């Protein structure tokens, strides 16, 4: 009896650590993301901050969360990822978007993907997935946009996809799928490059004759118009007739044999050519070529209100609006609804017919780019998905030449307006804005393919959502920069006071142009002042006139950082954090673009990693030997006390501006330099 009691006691004691451990279960979203990371090979360390000890994955790179801190997006396109995709992704039950295109991920598509009840966008294109397309994908009742093209998928064409009720875009091109294509109500559909696909039957979807399937060797594109009217059988009959004898007669056998031999040789050459072309396609950028999303976007006619011929369509979650609808939503583009004015045009508050409040940007110069270029730009915006980038709701490309972009309405306005408003933004919010903006720009520069240069980074172009999180806007018409180019030469466009010196003098822009603008934004967050305002405060700062960068540089030399801080903050800020943010800003605004950090370095420094080392490295005299530049352009190469070289936008520090000149500077702050962006 005593031994039994002792055994029972030991069992109870041994179970206590287990009970204590199990009382605090891990976040299931964290567990799922860690399992995904473990299945992938990450050569560039883009997932390095995925920490299994964390309880909140919303701060992780490549992860997008909702306002309720639920993981709704997983996006790591063009990151060189390999390995396999874990089926544990199904535990991210709130996922709405999965964007892993342009990587080298192998293995089979996880059948568990079909268990994501809220998934709307799935893009796994340009990887190395193999095996069959899981039938479970047919369970994704909310899926609108599906790209599995340019993989090595095999097996029968997935008929289960025809059961997805909201699917509006499907691309399965350049795989090795076989069998008949079922009837799809999908508006945009592409299966080109699957050599064993045959067309669907107009009356019995999926019941095409196997012999017909075997003879259709050339790539076949199956477009479906918006009314889902089945194609006529004439084209399928013509395709099925390839290599098939319809009439008898021995006299015809020799020509048929010769023709068959020649045809077989031609088909072999065609197959080799297609193989080589396909390999080359795999390395092309996402936004080019015949598989381009908008390149195969089906169009329809807007019959609402009497058939005016407006184009309406959907690109995944991006809608193409009719001009009438946006005209009505904004009360005829009434001046009462103007939210702001910018270099590209006015932004209006609008209310759609379903009650949704949106922001409508009416482009100022619709003739500056043709329809094809505009569609390419819209495509780029729609594929740039990040927590800190403004999401595109829709667009309008009317026959009259009007070009409009539709975005979510941001109730808290821009950072520029909030810095001048009441109550003032607290210091913690300003820090979050800085980090969020940096992450958004990092995504544009280093995680988009092709990379995107914003070219007008300023407080007015950073919006605040309902949680006061930074959302970078107005990048939609920025230039695309291929990896082979180090800079883009173009007519200068931007806001005076935020323009990098090399961009102003030569028209050459690069990622470092955006870094300069971001540095000015950091100074605006610290000081609460605009880029061209003179110093405000007491003492020596009151008499220091000039643009912000010169003023901040002088204060930094004198170690008077407290005088930089926005007076509206009072004493409620961290002196060390202010000094560090000023240091990051000065690093970002160095004269030489090569001396400025990359946005990935900026993010790390703002998060407290590597600032001291970067500051020391950039302030060694040998590293700061700047090339001579013409002073008549306004360049100031004189060093600060640490030997650092900065840029003087308009004047020499020894000169003093008159009150009229100061007023002139204020007047030109919002001036936009001409030229297309």
What does this structure look like?
The chain has about 675 residues and is of the alpha/beta class. The chain has three domains: about 30-230, Ribonuclease Inhibitor (Leucine-rich repeat, LRR (right-handed beta-alpha superhelix), Alpha-Beta Horseshoe), CATH 3.80.10; about 300-410, Phosphorylase Kinase, domain 1, CATH 3.30.200.20; about 485-670, Orthogonal Bundle (Transferase(Phosphotransferase), domain 1), CATH 1.10.510.10. The protein contains 16 helices and 27 strands. The strands form seven sheets. The protein has an eight-stranded mixed sheet, sandwiched between helices. Helix 9 runs antiparallel to helix 14 (about 600-605). The chain is globular and about 75 Å long. The termini are far apart.
Widest β-sheet, arrangement of strands: 14-15-16-20-21-19-18-17
Q: What proportion of the residues form beta strands (DSSP E)?
A: 5-15%
Q: Please give the CATH architecture of the largest domain.
A: Alpha-Beta Horseshoe
Tell me the number of structural domains: 3
Rg? 30 Å
Please mark out the parts with pLDDT under 50 across 5 or more consecutive residues, or reply none.
Answer: 16-25, 199-256, 277-312, 479-494, 534-546, 622-677
- Sketch the major β-sheet: 8 strands, mixed
Oligomer category: single chain
Helix content: 25-40%
Q: CATH superfamily of the largest domain, called what?
A: Ribonuclease Inhibitor
Task: Give the total of beta strands.
Answer: 27
CATH topology of the largest domain: the name is: Leucine-rich repeat, LRR (right-handed beta-alpha superhelix)
Number of helices: 16
CATH class assignment of the largest domain: Alpha Beta
Outline: globular
For the residues shown, what is the average pLDDT?
70
Which secondary-structure class do the elements indicate?
A: alpha/beta
Distance between the termini: 87 Å
């Amino acid at each position: 009896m005593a031994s039994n009691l002792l055994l029972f006691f030991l069992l109870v004691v041994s179970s206590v650590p287990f009970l204590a451990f199990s009382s605090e279960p891990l976040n299931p979203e964290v567990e799922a993301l860690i399992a995904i990371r473990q299945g992938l090979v990450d050569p560039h360390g883009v997932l390095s901050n995925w920490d299994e000890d964390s309880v909140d994955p919303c701060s992780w790179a490549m992860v997008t969360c909702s306002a309720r801190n639920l993981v709704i997006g997983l996006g790591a396109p063009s990151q060189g990822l390999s390995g396999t995709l874990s089926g544990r992704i199904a535990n991210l039950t709130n996922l709405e978007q999965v964007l892993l295109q342009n990587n080298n991920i192998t293995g089979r598509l996880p059948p568990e993907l079909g268990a994501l009840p809220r998934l709307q966008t799935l893009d796994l294109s340009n990887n190395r997935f193999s095996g069959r397309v899981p039938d479970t994908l047919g369970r994704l009742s909310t899926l609108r946009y599906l790209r599995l093209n340019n993989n090595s998928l095999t097996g029968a064409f997935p008929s289960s996809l025809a059961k997805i009720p909201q699917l509006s875009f499907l691309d399965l091109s350049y795989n090795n799928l076989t069998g008949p294509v079922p009837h799809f109500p999908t508006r945009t559909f592409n299966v080109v490059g699957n050599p064993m696909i045959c067309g669907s039957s107009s009356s019995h979807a999926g019941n095409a004759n196997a012999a017909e399937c075997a003879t259709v060797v050339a790539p076949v594109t199956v477009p479906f118009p918006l009314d889902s009217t089945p194609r006529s059988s004439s084209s399928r009959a013509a395709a099925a007739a390839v290599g098939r004898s319809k009439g008898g007669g021995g006299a015809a056998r020799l020509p048929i044999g010769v023709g068959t031999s020649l045809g077989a040789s031609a088909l072999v050459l065609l197959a080799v050519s297609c193989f080589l072309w396909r390999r080359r396609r795999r390395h092309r950028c996402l936004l080019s070529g015949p598989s381009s999303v908008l390149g195969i976007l089906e169009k329809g006619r807007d019959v609402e209100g009497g058939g005016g011929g407006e184009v309406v369509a959907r690109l995944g979650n991006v809608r193409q609006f009719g001009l009438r609808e946006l005209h009505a939503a904004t009360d005829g583009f009434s001046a009462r609804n103007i939210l702001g004015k910018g270099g590209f045009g006015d932004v209006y508050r609008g209310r759609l017919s379903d009650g949704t409040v949106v922001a409508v940007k009416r482009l100022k110069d619709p003739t500056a780019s043709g329809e094809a270029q505009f569609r390419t730009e819209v495509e780029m915006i729609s594929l740039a998905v990040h927590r800190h980038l403004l999401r595109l709701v829709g667009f309008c490309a009317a026959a009259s030449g009007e070009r409009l972009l539709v975005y979510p309405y941001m109730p808290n306005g821009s950072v520029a307006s909030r810095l001048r408003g009441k109550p003032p933004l607290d210091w913690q919010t300003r820090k979050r804005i800085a980090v969020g903006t940096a992450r958004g720009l990092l995504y544009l520069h280093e995680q988009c393919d092709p990379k995107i240069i914003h070219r007008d980074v300023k407080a007015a172009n950073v919006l605040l959502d309902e949680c006061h999180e930074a959302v970078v806007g107005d990048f939609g018409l920025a230039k695309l920069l291929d990896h082979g180019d180090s800079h883009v030469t173009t007519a200068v466009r931007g806001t005076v006071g935020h323009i990098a010196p090399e961009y102003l003098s030569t028209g050459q822009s690069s990622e470092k142009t955006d870094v300069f603008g971001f540095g000015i934004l950091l100074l605006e967050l610290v000081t609460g002042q605009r880029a061209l305002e003179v110093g405000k405060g007491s003492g020596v700062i009151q008499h220091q006139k000039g643009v912000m960068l010169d003023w901040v540089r002088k204060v930094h030399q004198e170690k008077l950082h407290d005088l930089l801080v926005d007076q509206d903050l009072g004493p409620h800020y961290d002196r060390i954090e202010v000094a560090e943010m000023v240091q990051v800003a000065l690093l970002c605004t160095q004269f030489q673009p090569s001396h400025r950090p990359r946005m990935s370095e900026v993010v790390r420094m703002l998060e407290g990693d590597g600032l001291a080392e970067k500051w020391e490295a950039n302030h060694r005299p040998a590293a700061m030997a700047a090339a001579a530049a013409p002073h008549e352009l306004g360049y100031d190469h004189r060093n600060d006390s640490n030997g650092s070289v900065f840029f003087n936008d308009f004047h020499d520090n020894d000169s003093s501006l008159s009150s009229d000149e100061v007023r002139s500077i204020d007047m030109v702050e919002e001036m936009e330099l001409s030229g297309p962006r």
